[in-house]
Description:
Elements: E1 18-28, E2 31-37, E3 49-55, E4 61-67, E5 76-82, H1 90-93, E6 101-109, E7 122-128, H2 133-138, H3 142-147, E8 150-157, H4 164-174, H5 180-183, E9 187-193, H6 204-209, H7 212-217, E10 227-233, H8 235-247, E11 261-265
Parallel strand pairs: 7-8, 7-10, 8-9, 10-11
Antiparallel strand pairs: 1-2, 1-6, 2-5, 3-4, 3-6
Bound molecules: flavin-adenine dinucleotide and adenosine-2'-5'-diphosphate.
Amino acid sequence: TDAATPGSAPKVKTLPDAQTVTQVTHWTDTLFSFRCTRPQSLRFRSGEFVMIGLMGDNGKPLLRAYSIASPSWDDELEFYSIKVPDGPLTSKLQHIEVGQEIILRPKPVGTLVHDALLPGKRVWFLATGTGIAPFASLMRDPETYEKFEQVIMMHTCRTVAELEYGRKLVEDLRDDPLIGEMVEGKLRYYPTTTREDFHHTGRITDNLSSGKVFADLDLPRMNADEDRAMVCGSLAFNLDVKEVLEGFGLREGANSEPREYVVEKAFVGDGV
Ligand code: FAD
Ligand code: A2P
């Protein structure tokens, strides 16, 4: 416990595993990101997720899985979140402000990690919606550029506004003093929309199957010798992408058995 300094209020953490929010950004009426303090002892691999939340009305922690969107070298943690209007957690979490606390259980896990992929020439990050969060971490991790000659970030949302978090992240990355130089010429960003006009449109599955993305980026057709992939989206998206990737000859890997691609759900429950 913190001792009170005479004349000042004692700094008491009110929640178990509490971390303090340092920044909040609202991107749309359904999307926001926030940063918080990082427990000194927390070690994680870029791409992993943790359980975070708030104290529920019943006095018990209300926790949900969240991908860590910041890279493992960052002093703080970043999260990118949906706002579900009647969602038990996000109906409250969306109102969080700087200085307030969240609960963070410091036990990172997940399959979207470099250890689960065999070495290759190119890595494809395939995401819909908030599924870009683990790649926000991996795109900022030097290991990604040490391991692969080319990194292709495909992100698809219904509207242009929903792409903004990822767009800004990629833009800022190019000017980043720490890894800007590593990223230069290696990171290819391929955002598309499906329900609004944009310079590139269409589902990731369709742009891969038709070969459009390979033509647009002047890359060879995806193949098991050179290409690796990490996938994060709704269950329906993940299932459809898996089929496409298997069609190119890639096989699903895991921490215990690295192969050509890995998959993680961006959230549970979407009517499949
Ligand atoms: P819930 O009761 O959890 O969800 C209500 C409904 O909202 C769900 O049935 C689903 O239809 C929909 N929904 C939930 N999450 C999303 C989403 N992200 N995108 C679209 N629809 C959704 N959420 C994030 O916002 N950012 C993350 O980085 C993130 N990482 C996750 C990682 C894993 C491994 C898993 C399993 C889930 C992750 N989620 C993430 C989802 C998150 O755990 C919660 O479901 C979300 O915060 C909503 O919580 P809730 O209590 O408000 O509503
Ligand atoms: P679409 O607009 O054609 O459904 P959502 O907001 O429903 O979670 O979807 C996020 C993005 O993922 C949308 O652009 C959506 O395209 C796309 N998407 C949803 N389901 C699939 C799927 N099974 N395969 C490929 N893309 C999908």
